[in-house]
Amino acid sequence: MGGKSDTPLLIKGKRLDGRKMDEMRPIKIKAGVIKGADGSCELQFGETKILAAVYGPMKVLPRRNEEASRAFLNVNYFMAAFSTSDRCRPGPSRRSTEISHVIRRALVPAIYMEKYPQTEIRLILQVTNANAGTRTSALNAATVALIDAGIEMRDLVTSIAAGKIEDQIAVDLWQDEDNFGQADLPIAIMPRTEEITLLQMDGDLTKAELKKAIEMCIKSCKEIAKLQRKAIIESYSGDQKGAKNEK
Amino acid sequence: MTKEKLNISDREIVIPGDVLAEGMSYIPSGRAVRDGEKIIATSLGLTNVKGHVVKVIPLAGRYAAKRGDSIIGKITEIAKFGWRVNIHCPNDADLPIAEASSSYLDTNRNPMSKFFDVGDLIFAGISEITSSGFVKLSARNRPYRKLHEGIIIDVSPTKIPRIIGKQGSMITMLKEASGCDIIVGQNGWVWIKHDDPEKQMLIVNAVKKIESESHIPGLTEKIKKMLKGGKK
Prior knowledge:
The complex is a heterodimer of chains A (247) and B (232).
Chain A: E1 10-11, E2 14-15, E3 27-31, E4 39-45, E5 48-58, E6 72-79, H1 94-107, E7 120-129, H2 134-148, E8 158-165, E9 168-171, H3 175-180, E10 183-190, E11 195-199, E12 202-203, H4 207-236, H5 240-246
Parallel strand pairs in A: 6-7
Antiparallel strand pairs in A: 1-2, 3-4, 4-5, 5-7, 8-9, 8-10, 10-11, 10-12
Helix pairs in contact in A: 1-2, 2-4
Chain B: E1 5-6, E2 13-14, E3 19-22, E4 27-30, E5 32-35, E6 38-41, E7 45-50, E8 53-58, E9 70-78, E10 82-86, E11 93-96, E12 121-129, E13 135-138, E14 145-147, E15 151-154, H1 160-164, H2 169-178, E16 181-184, E17 189-193, H3 197-212, H4 219-229
Parallel strand pairs in B: 4-8
Antiparallel strand pairs in B: 1-3, 2-7, 3-6, 5-6, 7-8, 9-10, 9-12, 10-11, 12-13, 12-14, 15-17, 16-17
């Protein structure tokens, strides 16, 4: 990352997987997939696949994490051993600890933490297949799972990454663009107010490029928000939910 | 000034962040708040519009203790002051000895476990919630009591109003059709007892059906049919 790569990432102005610069990968979201959890979500962002589960509000364990006037959001982001091209060592790592923390910071502003004092909301994010953009997809899945669990929130949190490939800004990078591109910029916003809750940057962008990237992300985020909304409402209308409970 | 506008109809599923109405004449209620001139939903729920009051009734979520609620609890611990009770909440509730019965309990003569033992189920009311979040129970007066035998089923606390029905219509129907003893705790635990296990199971299935289809209209008729048929 940073310099120009030898691998061509654009052929005749089109990306290697045939997308336009502002086009996202196909998205599939399904809410309420795990019966034992209070809320859950299965999300697919192209090849990237995430499972999210929410438990709580529940008793805080260990007790030292308890906060007197607000909830404690416990985020666990894990990558499955089979999720990457070569085996990913399971268990907590430097990277998964960082991403758990980043996701926690991105979600807390959207949740009414003060309505659940002395409790813990446990969020488990399992990456079953990684193909760039796992933290943004995990955030999207986390929001749907939290809403499915009935947690009170100010707004959705919707997330997408933009990047620079061959000096052009593109939205939703996939594996090769992420590896050989010049910059990667994951963003999370609350779509109604357009408040930014997560902004990271890896690589170099000029001020104008950054502005353009954020604008493109906000546009895409609003599209994702519609899909998230549809997924939750679909799980409640019709027989889907009823069928789940009868099993 | 923005125009007065209602964006949703009655009994519609909404999610957090949905703008329900615009304009100062609308009043938020339940899981809805005002943000500037807009009314925003704060959780997954069903809308209920009555005149200018826009209410969101939650569709999911765990139980949050409220003063005056009648709940079913399970004794987890015997302490000096009384009993600690699991009420399906993040933190256990306290039941002091003085609040356990209308008569005097002589703990010198009888051990406390003789009255309520660990694992016993009780039907009690929430008498007090302190500012730090401790829940105090009371089981002094009827109908609060210890629950013998029977089975407990766990339903979502958001579905409890539907199981009770309008002025208890649904619960009365269930009781009359089967002759079961049914006690509904507002914390999401329902106690069912009948000598005939088949009838007991019928009610269990009926309650589960109410839970899964609570937001679909025409439920009362479905349950009525189900009870008449006697099938599961």
